[in-house]
Fold:
Amino acid sequence: MKELKELVKFLLGFMPWLLFLFLSGHTLVSLERSVLISLLASLIFSFRELRKGFILQWGTLLFFVACTITVNFMNLRLVAENMGIISNGFFACLIWGTILIGKPFTLQYAKADLPKERWDDPALIHSCRFIAIVWALLLTLSALIAYFRILNPALYPDWIYFDINIGVILGGTVFTSLYKKYKRNQYHPAKQ
Structure:
């Protein structure tokens, strides 16, 4: 039950991005609407994490504020037409940034669920960095696929690219859950 609760909490951190993926559609109107919904979701679903200074949530909020300004108010067509690259690229860079500054986004989630005496545990920090690197690589792959899509627009139907993005998210989520379970079992081996 604890693992399910942690998974839901983790996915709520991604909720604005998930909503954006599912709602952005193929028209400017659907993109504008999804930007506003995702902006609101970043405030609603991440309010507590924003107050605690979570880097992922602040980056997400800034991204959707910038999208609201550039897409909804300034009507910048270039941004709208390249949103797949921009969103995946920004998200990947945000996660790479947390790794490079030594504060992988996953560590903030881990600290929320662990006693303070474990926060500086090198094994915990290493595991959080590893999970963050996997997510950064997956999102970098999504950004590259979005770039490939722009270079070869008629090569594959849109649903292929959408399914790849869903696969990346599912893959990252499954990996995170399994890896956390594996590390927990190492830290707290079952009694013989």
Summary: The radius of gyration is 18 Å. The chain has a mean pLDDT of 90.
